[in-house]
Design brief:
The protein is mainly alpha-helical. It is built from twelve helices and four strands. This is Energy-coupling factor ABC transporter permease.
Length: 370
């Protein structure tokens, strides 16, 4: 659903750019809390995972899957990011992916970057996170319900993004097309794409839940390990009142290395970007198909980065298609991992520095100047 340059006029593109910039600014502040952690949270484990989530989204977005005759779809990633690393960090993950796709691979217009971040990042993250949290409040407290809730949240987020695009197009579309036709076509095809999105999201979340449930940010309160104190069977008074209510196990007692999961995730990411991407569907994705069928693409403009050595997800001057595409995918995944991890590490350190300064100020003797 990458919107190219020319689909939306300049005033509305500028407006969505302002919305996207505000969302990123808010997310930078909110992500400090998510990455820095809080009571019962493991922020130090979220920071490295967030960079990997961004790289994984980039890689899986290369895997277009067929959804109808002559149409394909791909992961948007907002639901997956929001559930695994939190809504603020999730917006940043998708924004990093979209930025690098536009600059390095000529995928998604540069003047439309604000539109793409607003639609594919902000809308999908907010809708998916809201649906996911609402479902957890009413579903039984079981791990399988977390996977099921992630499926539904991802499924809903994709047509929600299609509705949002239709609204943006209604405000600033550059061609005279019936909005009813655009709405029906966009929602219809993206419901089908949403099924693929839901399957990928649920499979990924379920895999993480199975091995490290504490790393699923949006469900930590449902998956927290608890320590229950019970009377000893050797107690002299077997009828004694039960002990205190279950209490969370201290974070230090639950801390385990994230390295095995991180390495596994990296291997899967590189396999998707460097190998499986060669077998992706070559059919146009949902937006491209709707645009072509309804004449929306008549005003599409050439991409400013069309001469990039990585344009169209291939390395320039490498004739072998498999090698060219695989190498481009690996470069893209690596760049996304590096940029995303760099952003998140800086944010976490700033959060840590702020917390330490606040603690020092609070414990300083009265009248002491700092």
């Amino acid at each position: 659903m990458h919107v190219p340059d020319g689909f939306i006029n300049a005033p509305v593109s500028a407006g969505t750019g302002v919305v996207a910039a505000a969302a990123v600014a808010i997310s930078l502040r909110g992500a400090r809390r998510e990455l820095g952690g809080g009571p019962g949270e493991a922020g130090e484990r979220t920071a490295p995972l967030a960079g990997l989530v961004a790289a994984f989204i980039f890689a899986v977005q290369m895997l277009n899957f067929p959804v109808a005759a002559g149409t394909s779809g791909h992961l948007l990633g907002g639901a997956l990011a929001a559930i695994l690393v939190g809504p603020y960090t999730g917006v940043l993950c998708v924004s990093v992916v979209l930025l690098l796709q536009g600059v390095l691979f000529a995928d998604g217009g540069l003047t439309a970057l604000g539109t793409n971040i607003t639609d594919m990042g902000v809308v999908t993250v907010l809708v998916a996170y809201g649906v996911f949290r609402a479902l957890l409040r009413v579903l039984p407290r079981r791990r399988s319900m977390v996977t099921g809730a992630s499926f539904v949240a991802a499924l809903v987020s994709v047509p929600a993004a299609a509705v949002a695009f239709t609204g943006i197009y209604a405000l600033g579309g550059t061609t005279e097309v019936s909005l009813g036709k655009v709405f029906g076509a966009m929602v219809g095809v993206h419901v089908l794409i949403g099924i693929g999105e839901a399957a990928i999201t649920a499979a990924t979340v379920g895999a993480v839940v199975a091995v490290r449930p504490d790393l699923v940010y949006a469900a930590r309160d449902r998956l927290a390990v608890r320590l229950e104190l019970r009377p000893s069977p050797l107690s002299a008074d077997p009828e004694a009142a039960p002990g205190p209510a279950p209490q969370p196990v201290p974070a230090a007692a639950r801390r385990r290395s994230t390295r095995p999961l991180w390495i596994t995730g990296l291997v899967v990411t590189l396999l998707c970007a460097g190998g499986l991407s060669f077998y992706a569907s070559s059919s146009p994705d949902g937006l491209e198909k709707v645009a072509a069928d309804n004449g929306i693409d008549k005003q599409a403009e050439k991409h400013a980065a069309e001469d990039s050595p990585l344009a169209d997800y291939g390395v320039k001057d490498i004739a072998d298609a498999r090698l060219s595409g695989g190498l481009a995918g690996v470069i893209g995944a690596g760049a996304t991992l590096a940029v995303g991890s760099g952003v998140f590490v800086v944010l976490r350190r700033r959060r840590g520095g702020t917390a330490r300064n606040g603690t020092a100020a609070a414990t300083a003797p009265a009248g002491t100047e700092r």
